[in-house]
Amino acid sequence: MTVEEPAPVHPALDLDDAVHQKTRLALLTVLDEAGRADFPYLRKVLNLTDGNLGRHLDVLAQQGLVEITKGYAGRRPRTWAAITPKGEQALAAEMRLLAALLERFNNRG
């Protein structure tokens, strides 16, 4: 009886579903660049509806990747999102994995 070694797991399977979804990846990238952004800015720059943006921010907040704060700008209520240290780490890990996948793709042949 021979014991076969398990096949290596493809690195693409290590993509984080919470981060890798394109809108959430875009949100984390924008927040990483800006530090903090309000809801109207995020909605405009990512071309999202209020509901769609709110849902993606909720998913990221539940994972501890962004922090949502509410307050006022003058008399107008505002909602801000900021990337957390955990979010920065998750984004960096995702980018490293994407870079490794790109290198693997470019070196095929």
From TrEMBL:
Q: Where is the Winged helix DNA-binding domain?
A: 24-101
- Name the keywords, alphabetized: DNA-binding
What's one Pfam family the UniProt record gives for this protein? HTH_34
According to UniProt, the name of this protein is DNA-binding MarR family transcriptional regulator
Q: Is Oxidoreductase among this UniProt entry's keywords?
A: no
Q: Which InterPro entries match?
A: WH-like_DNA-bd_sf (IPR036388), WH_DNA-bd_dom (IPR027395), WH_DNA-bd_sf (IPR036390)
UniProt GO molecular function: DNA binding
Q: Does the record bear DNA-binding in its keywords? A: yes
